[in-house]
């Protein structure tokens, strides 16, 4: 699908990988609907992008909040006439926590629920609520393509480190649901693709601190550096444009396999 003159809903769209994706799709002529909990930055990004961008303050762990953002997007789509071409579900958190800590305290359920409700439930809920507006699209290709769903997993889905129980569970689930999602949606001509990045520059990885970041870069094969958000966005663009990409998880990781601990 060509992104031009289509609307893409991007959660986590005002920072890091989501923002780079928004900028790239926007530069290709797409309309971008940015959903994020961070309202201050949202207004600035929309001002920067100008036309063809809207921001909806959204908490993806709150189903009503997603509903309102989709309603707002659909209203905008009615004005522009640019159908929803897809969703990029980028909102995510990486809150760490050992299953049992040094004080012999087990991982709290509130911390587990926090990560799962954003990374897993929030991703599925966003997709679930957007789909009725994609299944009804006029096909955009001779094959009958109507849309594309792009999700973000992580290296942690395959080689999660110590302290990544909740995060790895959420990202492993995203990887696992990619194929059944593609299968459910194939009759509508909607594809589902997941990207599993290793270490990429973003606000999330800024919080790791320079020492941890350096030790992660050391275990990369080639190139020995964190990925740039623009390199991630380039793969998203390919996922949007290449109809043969479907039901798969693409590792974008410089051959990095994360060690148990740093
Ligand atoms: N950067 C990496 O190295 C890396 C590696 C693997 C996977 N990922 C995944 O990529 C995605 C994007 O992460 P990033 O690195 O760009 O981080 P980031 O912190 O720069 O961006 C994440 C965005 O999600 C938003 N967000 C958080 N909770 C939200 C909520 N409840 N509702 C709506 N928005 C919410 C944040 O405000 C932020 O704008 C995440 O799912 C992350 O797990 C990142």
Topology:
Blueprint: E1 7-11, H1 16-27, E2 31-36, H2 39-49, E3 53-57, H3 63-80, E4 84-89, H4 109-130, E5 147-152, H5 156-159, H6 165-185, E6 190-197, H7 203-206, H8 210-218, H9 229-241, E7 248-252
Parallel strand pairs: 1-2, 1-4, 2-3, 4-5, 5-6, 6-7
Helix pairs in contact: 1-9, 3-4, 4-6
Bound molecules: nicotinamide-adenine-dinucleotide.
Provide structural commentary:
By secondary structure, this protein is an alpha/beta fold. The protein has a single domain, classed as Rossmann fold, CATH 3.40.50.720. The protein is 44% helix and 16% strand. The chain has nine helices and seven strands. The chain has a seven-stranded parallel beta sheet, with helices on both faces. Helix 1 packs across helix 9 and helix 3 runs parallel beside helix 4. The protein starts with 6 loop residues before the first strand and ends in a 10-residue tail after the last strand. The site of nicotinamide-adenine-dinucleotide (NAD) has 30 residues, from helix 1, helix 4 and helix 7.
User: Strand-residue fraction?
Assistant: 15-25%
Biggest sheet, in brief? 7 strands, parallel
Spans of at least 5 consecutive residues whose pLDDT stays below 50 are none
Q: Helicity, in percent?
A: 40-55%
Q: What small ligands are held by the chains? A: nicotinamide-adenine-dinucleotide
Mean pLDDT equals 96
What is the count of helical runs? 9
> What is the CATH topology?
Rossmann fold
CATH architecture: 3-Layer(aba) Sandwich
Strand order of the largest sheet: 3-2-1-4-5-6-7
Number of domains: 1
CATH H-tier superfamily: NAD(P)-binding Rossmann-like Domain
């Amino acid at each position: 699908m060509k992104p031009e003159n289509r609307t893409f809903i991007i959660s986590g769209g005002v920072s890091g990988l989501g923002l780079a994706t928004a900028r790239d799709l926007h530069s290709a002529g797409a309309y971008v609907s940015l959903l994020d909990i961070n309202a201050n930055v949202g207004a600035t990004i929309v001002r920067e992008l100008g036309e063809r961008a809207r921001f909806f303050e959204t908490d993806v762990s709150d189903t009503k909040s997603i509903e309102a953002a989709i309603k707002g997007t659909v209203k905008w789509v009615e004005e522009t006439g640019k159908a929803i071409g897809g969703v990029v579900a980028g909102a995510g958190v990486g809150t760490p926590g050992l299953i049992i800590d040094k004080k012999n305290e087990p991982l709290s359920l509130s911390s587990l629920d926090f990560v799962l409700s954003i990374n897993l439930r929030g991703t599925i809920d966003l997709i679930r609520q957007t789909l009725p507006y994609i299944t009804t699209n006029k096909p955009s290709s001779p094959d009958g393509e109507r849309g594309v769903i792009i999700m973000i997993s992580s290296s942690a889905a395959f080689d999660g480190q110590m302290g990544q129980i909740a995060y790895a569970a959420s990202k492993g689930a995203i990887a696992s649901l990619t194929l059944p999602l593609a299968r459910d949606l194939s009759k509508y001509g909607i594809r589902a693709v997941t990207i599993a990045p290793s270490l990429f520059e973003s606000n999330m990885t800024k919080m790791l601190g320079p020492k941890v970041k350096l030790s992660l870069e050391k275990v990369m094969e080639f190139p020995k550096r964190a990925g740039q958000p623009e390199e991630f966005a380039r793969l998203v663009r390919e996922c949007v444009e290449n109809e043969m990409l479907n039901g798969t998880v693409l590792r974008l990781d410089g051959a990095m396999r994360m060690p148990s601990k740093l």
